[in-house]
Amino acid sequence: MADVEGNAKLEGKVAFITGVARGQGRAHAVRLAREGADIVGVDLAGPLPGVPYESPTPEDLRETAALVEAEGKRALLRQGDVRDLDGLKALASEAVSQFGGLDVVVANAGICIPATWDESTPEIFRDHIDINVTGVWNTVMATAPHLVTRGGGSIVLISSYAGKKMQPFMVHYTTSKHAITGMTRAFAAELGAHDIRVNSVHPGAVDSPMGSGDMRTRIEQTNGANPRLAPMGTPFLNEYSASTDQIADAVAFLVSDQASFITAEHLSVDGGAQYF
Ligand SMILES: NC(=O)c1ccc[n+]([C@@H]2O[C@H](COP(=O)([O-])OP(=O)(O)OC[C@H]3O[C@@H](n4cnc5c(N)ncnc54)[C@H](O)[C@@H]3O)[C@@H](O)[C@H]2O)c1
Q1: Tens of pLDDT along 199-234?
Q2: For the whole prediction, is pTM greater than 0.90?
């Protein structure tokens, strides 16, 4: 997308995105490519641990690459795991040698399993922390040194309304997403000296494949455990959920020069649900 002078906002920049095979990650890839960025990305693109929704495939990852290329930008997308710090570092280095550097990071990969507090298991808790928290830390640790080398940049960590308020029947998910809110402030404080901005985005419900398969049935089942808590994600606006493009709009704003003095901020895109 061009500004009033006809310049694409991210021309010549390189964006590193996790969870890029589908859903919000794909929307960020296509949107940032449209703004002019080349895209580096990683996704498990295979079975996700314990989730009640469909897992993504390598074909999904190839489709994201094709969509980025259709925007006229380069796509370096790999199957990989955000729990693998060495793998992320290797991909970041490869991107730097191919594209010349990194400017933007979107730590978006995550999982979400509905389970009441007493049905939850050590595996469910561990997987949320390993992927949604350590995976985000790994993503920043693998990429931030390259932003330092570039002399600045922008990092967006994808949290949730569960990272500001809470999401019922998801102690594990709420814990992981609150950790991202704190991680955003803490990285922003130290990376500010390198002119690197770090912000978080907090979607409410989003229309993505995370809602596929048995996800809605499981949410209804867990809501049955205490119906008083069920409406906590209700927005003030009439639409219940955001499109993936609406979340990409927020990310595109935060990584643009229009947000050049915004850091350590936690931007909700939830129709007001955080205050319901
Ligand atoms: N869908 C929603 O309603 C919603 C609401 C708030 C926040 N979020 C958050 O937004 C982010 C994106 O979710 P989405 O809605 O696009 O869901 P999604 O399941 O469609 O996409 C998530 C992607 O992350 C990838 N991923 C998961 N674990 C990974 C790992 N270990 N290594 C690499 N990739 C991995 C998945 O393969 C998948 O492609 C997540 O962090 C999620 O928690 C989603």
Answers
A1: 999 999 999 999 999 999 999 999 999 999 999 999
A2: yes
Q: Could you report the per-residue pLDDT of 130-184, keeping only the tens digit for each?
A: 999 999 999 999 999 999 999 999 999 999 999 999 999 999 999 999 999 999 9
3-state secondary structure of 40: strand
Indicate if ligand 1 lies below 6 Å from the C-beta of 22.
yes
pLDDT tens by residue, 66-104: 999 999 999 999 999 999 999 999 999 999 999 999 999
| 173 given a catalytic annotation | yes
Which residues lie closer than 8 Å to 218 by C-beta, 6 or more apart?
52, 113, 114
Residue nearest to atom 32 of ligand 1 (CA): 81
> For residue 101, how far is the Cα from the chain centroid?
21
* Cβ 200 under 6 angstroms from ligand 1: no
Write the DSSP assignment of 196-255 as a string of letters. Answer: EEEEEEEE-SB-SGGGSTTHHHHHHHHHTT-GGGGGGG--SSS-SSB-HHHHHHHHHHHH
CATH number for 14-275 (one of 2.60.40.10, 3.40.50.720, 3.40.140.10, 3.90.580.10): it is 3.40.50.720
